[in-house]
Fold this protein.
Amino acid sequence: MSKIQNKIDFILELEKLKGVLRKTKPVGLDRYENSAEHSWQTTLTALILLDEAPAEIDALKVLKMLLIHDVVEIDAGDVFVYDTNARAEIAEKEAEAAERIFGLLPAGIGDELLQLWHEFEGRQTIESKFAKAVDRINPVLQNLASHGQSWVEHNIARERVLAMNSEIQAASPELWTVLEARIQQAPFFKQ
């Protein structure tokens, strides 16, 4: 099989990400967002916040990580971030999905993307910490703008929301200060 056919196969495989539904609805819409929409918006969010990132950060690496971070959901599906048991159980399935999906590409490209996916999941580099932090921002903004839609639907306590999303500080301490205050003041949490 030719390299261009491998690339075409990968590109077509990515179409499936549009069918993976998440637990959060886009602001103003009465449907759940899909993982492709989430990845796109998260990458744009990172682009906007890169001026707040540490100077030594590799911006292109961050953007690549965010574009591919949820590709594994094609095989593994999306697991609600607050479902800690399901998150632990799905790790192996996601790793297998990464091998399969990035394996569709020619070796050099596929290997690079697989390595970036593992780096993102590992949260050990400044790029992966920044990318993981940015990955938390849009679901928080969406919930705050929609009266806590997914938090209320799944009975997530304010304390869990704060704990799960405090890593946003790594992307933007100023943004986290604003979001934390809004979460603290949100009237839709059960007391």
